[in-house]
Design goal:
185 residues, mainly alpha, Cytochrome Bc1 Complex, Chain D, domain 2, 2 domains, 7 helices
């Protein structure tokens, strides 16, 4: 074996070793992503569930006084609220939802922890009037139910600081999103 063959074998061996190290790193990366993905589905990870609920803790309680538009009378009492103008534009509503922590668990067109707002709009398309009241109460009281196959049974936390009028405004905004059929669970 001459010097040129030895150099070729040495270079080829280094190349194979680099490929092997890269393959091992990719396997570890894929495994880490799989574990993270499994944790975010909250099937059995109490740590991931706790982290999600910590993200849900309100940064600040903000509320707006207004009368209920569903005909049930005055707005319910709110805890630690700041009075201000009624929510009128989609941008004001979205800002209010961000302050309430809604986007910690929901996105407009994809699942985060809870269902996408577009999925909710799809589910209730054609029945908006009844859905507004139903969703408003779900926002205030929280709970689990229809979306369990997608969320793994993770409960939506209650938002008792919201008035019924505020919750109805948020529900109308959600239902106004472009409907998108959810993927198969």
């Amino acid at each position: 074996m001459d010097l040129q063959d030895r150099k070729f074998i040495q270079t080829f061996s280094i190349f194979l070793l680099a490929l092997l190290v890269t393959a091992v790193l990719l396997i570890f990366l894929a495994n880490g992503l799989a574990i993270r993905s499994r944790d975010e589905s909250f099937g059995s990870s109490r740590l991931a569930e706790r982290q999600a609920y910590l993200r849900l803790r309100p940064v600040g309680q903000v509320g707006l006084e207004s009368k209920s538009v569903s005909g049930e009378g005055a707005a319910t009492p709110m805890m630690a609220t700041v009075q201000g103008p009624a929510l009128k534009t989609p941008a004001e509503i979205r800002h209010f939802m961000t302050a309430q922590g809604c986007f910690a668990c929901h996105a407009i067109d994809s699942k985060v922890v809870g269902p996408a707002y577009a999925w909710v709009a799809y589910r209730f398309r054609g029945q908006v009037a009844a859905a507004v009241v139903k969703l408003a109460h779900k926002i205030i009281k929280g709970g689990v139910g229809y979306w369990n196959p997608w969320t793994g049974g993770i409960a939506m936390p209650a938002h008792p600081q919201l008035s019924l009028a505020q919750a109805e405004t948020l529900a109308r905004w959600v239902l106004a999103q472009h409907p998108l059929a959810p993927p198969k669970p």
